[in-house]
Write a structure and sequence with these properties.
mainly alpha; 10 helices; binds zinc ion
């Protein structure tokens, strides 16, 4: 066994991660621009990036993700106003998530390929899923940032995204992207689209029901209309299984933060009672995209062990 990797082998193995890193930084930079400009109804492409304080148009070398921020010492070259660490933070978070997304798929495939000679085989379907996953993470990041800043989830982003991700679901049903075998039935071939259609309808319905219960119990709705549309988008992009995992994770996350707020008597977060749920949904959806299948599979295995095989096979069947 080659226990010692040569430098070139190491570089070959690291290369895809470096691509994810670079790609994540660039997309993160775009996410910053879109999240800042869309709520203000400004054009995304024109003008180029500028300092909001003095209007100085950034030359390309002041616009390199993370690097420029570090080189400039977090200050505008022209007016020396501090530039928020939020920008490089978002860029590096996205780069990390992209590497995580790739690593997850890499590990899945590497496990599947231990018998074969080749180290790893990425199918066309895998590449499509990576691309769609990367796009989804970007959209979730934009929506979370806008919801944090403005407490709204713009229809201009959520609504058009739904058919786009459904279309990717359809694309996953047909060669060369389909993962169904040769003797698969039509229903099996259409599975990627069907789970997304169910997700698009079932997830927002769950929120409507939760809101109804909330109105009965507390006299007010817990979620906004934006959350319901975001749930439809998550269902259309991830399918209902990962969508359910996303909702559970987001409710856990939101619940934990709410308890923390109560425990610290709102010292840190002030006295405002409203808490935007959108960022939790977006975060839950991204975590579900990367780790959701593991969670679902563990759940199914444990269901099988505890004797409720019928339920387990029903979930696995979908
Ligand atoms: Zn400036």
């Amino acid at each position: 066994m080659d226990s010692q990797l040569t430098l070139s082998e190491l570089l070959v193995r690291l290369f895809p991660f470096l691509v994810c890193l670079a790609f994540g930084l660039v997309v993160g930079s775009c996410v910053n621009v879109i999240a800042y400009r869309v709520p203000l109804r400004k054009s995304i492409v024109h003008p180029g990036s500028f300092c909001p304080q003095c209007g100085f148009i950034l030359p390309w070398f002041d616009n390199i993700p993370v690097v420029s921020w570090l080189v400039l010492g977090a200050r505008c070259r022209s007016c020396k106003t501090l530039i928020s660490p939020r920008y490089p933070l978002i860029e590096s978070t996205l780069a990390l998530l992209y590497m995580g997304l790739f690593a997850q798929m890499y590990l899945q495939n590497a496990q599947a390929q231990t018998v074969g000679q080749q180290l790893i085989i990425f199918t066309s379907g895998d590449y499509l899923q990576l691309f769609v996953g990367a796009l989804f993470i970007g959209v979730m990041m934009i929506l979370a940032l806008i919801d944090i800043d403005f407490r709204l989830l713009p229809n201009a982003i959520t609504l058009p995204s739904i058919p786009v991700f459904l279309l990717f679901g359809l694309l996953m049903c047909i060669p060369p992207f389909s993962e169904a075998g040769k003797d698969a039935t039509l229903l099996m071939r259409l599975d990627p689209l069907i789970i997304r259609l169910i997700g698009m309808i079932a997830l927002p319905l769950a929120f409507v029901v939760l809101d109804f219960i909330s109105v009965l119990a507390f006299g007010k709705a817990g979620f906004g209309g934006g959350d319901v549309k975001l749930a439809a988008l998550i269902g259309a992009a991830l399918g209902w299984k990962l969508g359910v995992v996303a909702i559970i994770l987001s409710i856990l996350g939101g619940g934990i933060l709410a308890i923390l707020r109560l425990a610290t008597r709102n010292i840190i977060w002030g006295r405002k009672t409203y808490m935007a749920f959108g960022p939790f949904l977006c975060g839950g959806a991204v975590l579900s995209l990367i780790f959701g299948m593991e969670i679902v599979n563990t759940f199914i295995t444990n269901l099988g062990r505890s004797g409720t095989d019928a339920v387990a096979s029903l979930i696995a069947g979908w």
